[in-house]
Amino acid sequence: MNKTLGLLFYPKKSKNNSNGLTPFYLRITIDSIRTNISSKRFINANKWNNRAQKVNGTCEEVRNINSTLKSLKIKVYKSHMEMVNQDLPFTSENLKNICMI
Q1: Using 50, 70 and 90 to split pLDDT, how confident is the model at 63?
Q2: Where does the pLDDT of residue 2 fall: very low under 50, low under 70, confident under 90, or very high at 90 and above?
Q3: Is residue 84 within 8 Å of 98, Cβ to Cβ?
Q4: Cβ atoms of residues 53 and 8 within 8 Å
Q5: DSSP string, 41-79
Q6: Quick check: 26 and 9 in contact, CB under 8 A?
Q7: Greatest CA separation found in the chain?
Q8: pTM, to two decimals
């Protein structure tokens, strides 16, 4: 049985910290069921590029954040492949639990 897997990075503006920075999250969607994972990183929401799913800029901090995003995305896809290879139940919550280990 094929299931759809969708990944979306987004800033959660409702949780701005005292410095005015916004945490960003990864939303995993599998067959219309969503689960969110915090990246534990904060950004200036004005620098966020929704279309490219990354932070705009060239400074060292921006490169580190974008690298973190890419690493998290790779980790999710690797975990997905492990679940498929081991015939584990493939749900967004199971994928989140495996990725957070």
Answers
A1: very high
A2: low
A3: no
A4: yes
A5: EEE-GGGEETTTTEE---SHHHHHHHHHHHHHHHHHHHH
A6: yes
A7: 46
A8: 0.80
